Amino acid sequence: MNLKLFIDQAICSALTQAGAAEAPAVIKNSQRPEFGHYQANGVMGAAKRLGLNPRVLAGTIIEALDFPAAAKVEIAGPGFINIHLSAEFIAASLTELRQYSQLGVQSRVAETIVIDYSAPNLAKEMHIGHLRSTSIGDAAARSLEFQGHHVIRANHVGDWGAQFGSLLAYMDQLDTSGVALGSELKDLERFYMAASRLFKSDPEFAHRAREYVVRLQSGNPRCRALWQLFITESVKHCQAVYDKLNISLTPADIKAESDYNADLPVVVDELTSQGLITVSNGAKCVFLDEFTGKDGNPLPAMVQKSDGGYPYMASDIAAVRYRSQTLKTDRALYFVDARQRLHLSQLFSVAKQAGYITDTQDFRHLPFGVILKEDGKPFKTRDGADVKLIEVIDEAIARAFELVSTKNPELDAEQRHEIARVVGVGAIKYAELSKNRLTDYVFDWDTMLSFEGNTAPYLQYAYTRIRSVFRRADIDPSTLSGDILIQEPLEMQLGLKLLQFSETVDAVTEDYQANILCNYLFELAGLFMSFYEACPILKAAPEVTTSRLLIADLTAQVIQQGLDLLGIDTVEQM
């Protein structure tokens, strides 16, 4: 049950009864700590449109309000309506919540949703910059699936283009000299750098590299075989990162740039037949009125170069065409760097002009900021190279192992390594997801691995603390039965927060801001800690103990499910 929507519907019904159906109320949680308290603040706007005194209209609404869940409804201030939920309603709702595996999150009318995220360039190893698209996109995919949507993960990897010419020429050179390519490709970054240096320093090699691009695109068997060897090894590198980072992407989700190669001339022909193509300096471009440069001149969206080659815009249009016409997606979400804003705006506009995106389809760019070092500069190595993501993950796990070993040296090494994996990976993902996706943020090891504050280790520890209650009592939570009782203010607070899980998940998928869920889980864990300290669980009267165990178990379930939607694991003890 979405509690906010439930109350909103009751107020809207009362507004209709009061003759103000055209002005539905806006409901927001007033965050009063001592009781379940919601506030309708749309009354003033409705009163203004109706020419009524807001307090008079509020009184009329209260008279028409049929809402037995409320213990008290009152007018506050100039015309706000305060709704105090009853302890009985919250207790009954919590009992009902325990019966559903979705924890109150109701399945939506299922849509087909394509999510374009991660999309590394296979010429290199994944670096720290890929953390944002990969983590944010994966959390969105998990949340939308939890709501019942059909999610298609689209990993639009870069496996085509001019940069592969130097790589293939270098591979061929090594292979013909008897070098084992398999071992050379174990470090893709080093391999790429060696090929790039040779391209810059050796004109003959550079010429040969350009020829390899033509050979590759024309289907030369030797080039294709070398290219496939490189791509296969690159995909292994990426999947190792995904597996370690608990990302739900698999090789089956890859739909690479090269997959659209045969469609590119078709796309250009279709754009030409619709009169959208203008030849500019030999290149085929689409000019749209809404895109102009600083000088006021129109900006081209180039779909074919003067030499006959195809830029990224062409393959991206082909991808839109495929997602729209073949996958028949209702929504397509592109979690791509904010620096690609202009490119994606042009992409969607051209695709709409061509009829590839219909009026009922929503193609949306969801940008994000960058990761910075403490000095405010981009997160790179001392020599300016991108930091490998796999090395960041390994360091997070190593640092977590030291913390866990210091905190709980009595655990055996295998347990400590597993806890370190869960805590370390969770820490870097949560540090990412707990920030507004549009903002830049500073990568700080000490903060993200702290067991205090709004961090993954804090939430994971809160979960284990709840589970420790059941271990001490030697109780299997699945065997619990009985009624939930709400008697203390902190029980009211915690119960109300648990009932807000559904509306929180809904809020996350409105603009794909995972930090909303992070903040909710942090507040929930904090409320449980306060409840745990103030309300004895195992030393209370039997019926109270049962009730508080039920509340504790429900809290653990919500924390675990919420973290799972973020792609973060839990452990039973740490």
UniProtKB/TrEMBL annotation:
Can you tell me which family this protein belongs to?
Answer: Belongs to the class-I aminoacyl-tRNA synthetase family.
Identify which top EC class this enzyme belongs to.
Answer: ligase
Q: What is this protein's record name?
A: Arginine--tRNA ligase
Q: What is its EC number?
A: 6.1.1.19
Domain Arginyl tRNA synthetase N-terminal, first and last residues per copy? 5-85
The record's catalysed reaction(s) read: tRNA(Arg) + L-arginine + ATP = L-arginyl-tRNA(Arg) + AMP + diphosphate
Instruction: State whether it acts alone or in a complex, and with which partners, per the record.
Output: Monomer.
Q: CDD domains, alphabetically?
A: Anticodon_Ia_Arg
Residue span, DALR anticodon binding domain: 459-574
Fetch the Gene3D superfamilies from UniProt. Answer: Arginyl tRNA synthetase N-terminal domain, HUPs, Isoleucyl-tRNA Synthetase, Domain 1
Report the subcellular localization. Answer: Cytoplasm
